[in-house]
Amino acid sequence: MGPTLITQIIIYFTSFVVQLSIFSPVSVSSQFCEAGIGYGDSECGVLSSSMSKILIKGGTVVNAHHQEIADVYVQDGIIVAVKPNIKVDDDVIVLDATGKFVMPGGIDPHTHLAFDFMSTQTVDDFFSGQAAALAGGTTMHIDFVIPVNGSLSAGYEAYTEKAKNACMDYGFHMAITKWDEIVSREMEIMVKEKGINSFKFFLAYKGSLMINDELLLEGFKKCKSLGALAMVHAENGDAVFEGQKRMIELGITGPEGHALSRPAVLEGEATGRAIRLAGFVNTPLYVVHVMSIDAMEEIAKARKSGQRVVGEPVVSGLLLDDSGLWDPDFTTAAKFVMSPPLRPSGHGKALQAALSTGVLQLVGTDHCRFNSTQKALGIDDFRKIPNGVNGIEERMHLLWDTMVESGQISVTDYVRLTSTECARIFNIYPRKGAILAGSDADIIILNPNSSFEISASSDHSRSDTNVFEGRGGKGKVEVTIAGGRVVWENGDLTVAPGSGKYIDMPPFSYLFNGIDKEYAKYLSSLQAPVKRFKATT
Amino acid sequence: MGSSVRCFTSLMLLLSIFLPVSESSQFCKAGIEYGDSECEFPSSSSSKILIKGGTVVNAHHQEIADVYVEDGIIVAVKPNIKVGDDVIVLDATGKFVMPGGIDPHTHLAFDFMGTQTVDDFFGGQSAALAGGTTMHIDFVIPVNGSLSAGYEAYTKKAKKSCMDYGFHMAITKWDEIVSRDMEIMVKEKGINSFKFFLAYKGDLMIKDELLLEGFKKCKSLGALAMVHAENGDAVFEGQKRMIELGITGPEGHALSRPAVLEGEATARAIRLAGFMDTPLYVVHVMSIDAMEEIAEARKKGQRVIGEPVVSGLVLDDSELWNPDFKTAAKFVMSPPIRAAGHGEALQAALSTGVLQLVGTDHCGFSSAQKALGIDDFRKIPNGVNGIEERMHLVWDTMVESGQISVTDYVRLTSTECARIFNIYPRKGAILAGSDADIIILNPNSSFEISASSHHSRSDTNVFEGRRGKGKVEVTIARGRVVWENDELKVAPGSGKYIDMPPFGYLFNGIDKEDAKYLSSLQAPVKRSI
C-alpha cells in the first residue's frame, strides 16, 4: 500500500516541526516518541510552548451534566482550573473561545485501525486513523484487539506493536473467538494486568470470528466474574450464510447482495438472543453498531425491564441508508459495504430518535476503512468485499449537525453521547469525558456558526473514498487539544507518532454497581433447595 | 405396518373404569388408509346413530339440530330427522353436540430419558376418548436420526390404537438421507409436519444451521415446521448452576430453565422462519415471554401458530416446591410450568386468537418412573398428563368463565387443529360428510379429576382434585359410541391412521409472497465491470 495523508499533517519532535504538504507519504519509521503503555507517563519530550500551559478564554464550557461560560486552564496535559476570568502569565497560550463551545474531545468506542480482515488490512493504521480522528475532534478511541489464532496474549502483543505510532490516546477492547482454559485464564490477565475491561463476541462471520451460544454463555460468565463488559456483534451468522447462498443462487453477486443477504430481522434476532442470555447470566451487555429498528427495539424492551444493556449506534447507521449499495458504479456501491449493513431509509431516523431519548447511549463509528482497490477484491462476489466504512473523522461533525443543529438533543446531550458516556462505561471518567479540574486536557473548541464539508479529497484518512462524500453542515471543530497539546488549529494538524498513550481501563464500571445485591436477591428468590425426606416408593 | 390384527365382527371389548387394559385384547384390524375400515362394527352400536335435539356447534356456527350418522360418517345435520327403528337414538336436548377433540400434541409409548411413557397408544387413547378427544397427533421420534426407522417403530406402537391418530415427526440430525426421507414422509406416508427441538442438549437438540436447512425443506414440501423453543445451551448452563447451588430437587427443574430462555428460542425460531418465509408452529407455549413473541410476529403478518397446553393454562409452578418429592416430581415437564400469572395471560391470548389451539403434550410417567430423578432433577422424566382432562378443563376454564364462546371452544379444541394439519372438514366439524367423531357435553353436569378414577395408567395426575362444570357424557368415535354412562367401549386396532396432506391453509399465498420478495430486491444491479 502507498499510504498517503490527504491534507497537511505536521509531525514534530521536540523543537523541530516537519510540515508535510498534501499527499506526502507518511513514513512508518517516523516514530520519534515512544508510546507510553502505562497511565500518564509519556516518555516523549514535548514542546513547552505548545503544550505546557493553555488558557481557553470565554467559551461555553460544556459537560454532560452542566454548561457554563468559563475559562479553562491547562497545564502539563491536565485541566487545572475551570472558572470564569482566570488570569495567567505571558508564557501561556491563550485561545479565544468566545461564542464557541468548549467540550471534552470525542471518544470513539468502536474502531478498527490496522485491522487484518478479509485478506487485507484496513487502510488506516493507528497513526493515520488517529490523525484523522484529531482533525475531526476525537481525542481518544478504543480499538478491538483480535486474537491471533485464538490467543489473547498474542493478539495483545500484535496490537501493542500496531499502536506504537499512536498520536492520540487509545484503549483496547478484545475479541473472544474460541474457548478453552487458556483463553479463560488470559481474559483474567488482560483485565488484571493489561488494562482491558471489555470483551467482544461475534455472532456473525461464520467460519471466521463467529462463536456459538455455548461459548457466549461461558464468555458472559467469565466477564461477569472479572467485572468486564461483554460486547456483541449481533447478527445470526448461520442465517447470514444462508442468505448469502440464496443471493448467489439468485445471481445477485454485486454489493446490493450484501444488504439483501443479511436483513434487519437477523440483527434483531441476535440482539434479542444476546440480551436474554446476558440477562440469564445477569451481566451487563454492550451491543455494538445497532443498525436497525429491530435491534433497537430489543434494547428498548430490555432497558424498560431494567436490564443493563447499552446500545451503540454508529454514525454511518444514523445518517446513511442502503440506497448507495444499488449504485450502478461498483466503486461507489462497494464503499458502503459494512456489517451489519446500512439499512433502508427510516432505520437511521428511528435510531436518531432512540439516541435522543436515551434508549441508545453513545455513538461510535466502527471505522474500518478500505480503499477502492481493496473493495474491488469483491468485484465478482459481494462476499469478498472487505466490510467497513469510515467515520472516525466525521463523527463529531455529523452528530452535531444531525442531532444538535436539528434540535433533537441539547449540547450537554451531545457531550454525553460523544464522550462522557463512553468514558463512564469504560470506567475512565472523569479522567476522560469531562472538562473538570484534574481531567486529561482532551478538549475541542467547536464554532456553531462555522460549517464543515466532507470529501475524500480533503479528509485525513488514507482512503480514496468517503461514505459521507459531499455532506456538509453547521458546526466546526476549530481546535483540538489532545493531552494538553494543540494538535488541530487553523486547518493544520500537528501530530507526533508515538505521542498517544495507552489508557488502562479498570474493571467493574458503574454498570456493575449493585449486581452483587441483585445476585443475593436472586438466590433468596429461589426458595431452594427444598428440604425433602426421601420417598421410599 | 399396523394391519395384522384380527377383527372379530360382533365382539366389542367393554372396559369398566378400573379394568386393566390387556395388551392382547386386539380384536379389530387397524386400517391405515383413509376411510376403509377393515373392521365391521356391530350394527346396534355403530352403523346408525341419531343425536336428537342438541345444540350442534361448529367453529363457524351453532344451531339446534339433529345429527344422523351412518357407517362412521355424518350423513345429515338438520332439525327433525326421522329414522327407522334400527337406529340408536341419543337425546341431546339441552346439551352441546360438538366435534370430538383433536389433541395436536401427545407422546404415547415414547422412549425418553431412560424409560417409556406409561401410556401406550391404547391406554392413552382410551383415556382420551373418556375425556371427549377422538383424535390425536403423536410425535414420531427418529431412531438414530433415521426417519424411516422411526416411522416403522411408531407404526408398530400404534397398532393397537382405538381411535384415529396422525403423526408429526421430529428431525434430530441433518444429512442427505434425512432430507430425502422428509420428502418420502410427506409424499408417501401422510406426514405434513416436522418438529425441531431447540432444547435437550446432547440428545434431541439441533443447531440454527440445521434449523435453517429444515425450514427450507419444510417450505419446499409444504410441511409445517414446529419447534420446541427453549435455548438448550442456556438450559444446560442453568442446570449446572442449580447443581452447584446444591439445588437437586424438582424445583431446580423450573429454576434452571426460566421463561426468558423460552422467549429467546421462540423469537429466534420465529425470525428464522420469517427469514425463510415458511409457516411456524410453536408447541407448548408456556410463558408470557413466548406468547408475546408470537403476538408481535402475528401483528406483523407472519404465519406463526402458538399452541398452549392445558397444564400451562391452568397450573402454576408452586407444586414443584412441594416437600413431598412424588408430588413435586409429577409437575416436571419442559418447558416448565411457570409462576402464577403466566397461565392467565395465556388464557387471555387464547381467548383473543393470539394463540390458536390447545394441546396437552401428554407424556405420562408414573411416580416410580419420576423417582429416577430422586437425587437429581435432571433425571426426572419430563412430562405430565392431559389427554383425558383437556376438553373438560378448557370448557370450565374458558367457557364457563365467560372468556370464550362455545363456537370458540370448538375451534380451539378441534377445528383449528384439523385446519392447520389439513384434514378439515373430514375432522373438526359436524357437517354432512365429516367423520362421525362427536361428543355430547352436558353444561349442567360436572366433572372431577383424580388419579383414582382417570383412565391413564399413571398413579398420579397433575390435575388431582380439580372439578368444574361441564361433562362429556357421550363420545362417538368413527360412528361408534365409545363412551357413555361413564363406561368405555374400545377396541384395540379400531383406530385409523389419518393421512395428513401437505400445503395446509398456512401455505396459501406463500408463492405470491415469494414473487413479491424477489421483485422487491431490485437485483442484480446491472454494472459494467
Automatic annotation (TrEMBL), chain A:
Q: Name one GO biological process term.
A: pyrimidine nucleobase catabolic process
For this protein, what post-translational modification is recorded in UniProt? Carbamylation allows a single lysine to coordinate two divalent metal cations.
Q: What is the protein named?
A: dihydropyrimidinase
- Modification sites for N6-carboxylysine: K200
Annotated coiled-coil segments of the chain:
none
Q: Which cofactor does it need?
A: Zn(2+)
What this protein catalyses is: 5,6-dihydrouracil + H2O = 3-(carbamoylamino)propanoate + H(+)
Sorted alphabetically, which Pfam families does this protein's record hold? Answer: Amidohydro_1
State the InterPro entries in the record: Amidohydro-rel, Hydantoinase/dihydroPyrase, Metal-dep_hydrolase_composite, Metal_Hydrolase, Metallo-dep_Hydrolases_sf
Task: List each copy of the Amidohydrolase-related domain by range.
Answer: 101-487
- EC number(s) per entry: 3.5.2.2
Subunit structure, per the record? Answer: Homotetramer.
Q: What start and end residues bound the annotated signal peptide?
A: 1-29
- What does the entry list under GO cellular component? cytosol
Q: Which family does it belong to?
A: Belongs to the metallo-dependent hydrolases superfamily. Hydantoinase/dihydropyrimidinase family.
Q: Name one GO molecular function term.
A: metal ion binding
Keywords for this entry?
A: Hydrolase, Metal-binding, Signal, Zinc
Automatic annotation (TrEMBL), chain B:
- UniProt keyword annotation of Nucleotide-binding present: no
Q: Please provide, alphabetically and separated by semicolons, the GO molecular function terms listed in this UniProt record.
A: dihydropyrimidinase activity; metal ion binding
Which CDD domains would you find in this protein's record? Answer: D-HYD
Q: What reaction gets catalysed by this protein?
A: 5,6-dihydrouracil + H2O = 3-(carbamoylamino)propanoate + H(+)
Q: Which principal EC class is assigned to this enzyme?
A: hydrolase
**Subunit info?**
Homotetramer.
Protein name (Swiss-Prot/TrEMBL)? dihydropyrimidinase
State the organism of origin: Nyssa sinensis
